[in-house]
Amino acid sequence: MNKNLENGSKEEIKKSKAERAELREKLYQKIESEILESGLKYGDVKSTLSKLIIIYTDKANNVLNDADIQKVVESPRFIR
Questions:
Q1: What is the pLDDT of residues 48-69, one digit of tens each?
Q2: What's the CA gap between 62 and 4, in Å, rounded?
Q3: CB neighbours (10 Å) of residue 22?
Q4: Is 80 helix (H, G, I), strand (E, B) or coil?
């Protein structure tokens, strides 16, 4: 969670969640638009999206593998 929000008010946290939801929706729309304009087949698009997931999962794991276990334990399981 953002350091500024760890001690922030519930209103700040809600605002952040709303802002993130809006950004996710914009990203979704951009990706969908690119997919539709690409002219690729379903399998090609699925393969491309899977590749992105794998790359970002690997990178996230690299970051997490270098994190102190105490920080990991203190972190909430889900942040939405």
A1: 999 999 999 999 999 888 889 8
A2: 24
A3: 10
A4: coil
The answer for residues whose C-beta is within 8 angstroms of residue 79's C-beta and 6 or more apart is 1
Beta-carbon neighbour count of residue 40 at 10 Å? Answer: 14
Give the span between the Cα atoms of 49 and 47, in whole angstroms: 6
User: Rounded to 10 degrees, what is the CA torsion of 60, 3, 21, 54?
Assistant: 0
Amino acid at 43: G
Whole-number pLDDT of residue 77 = 81
Identity of the amino acid at 45: V
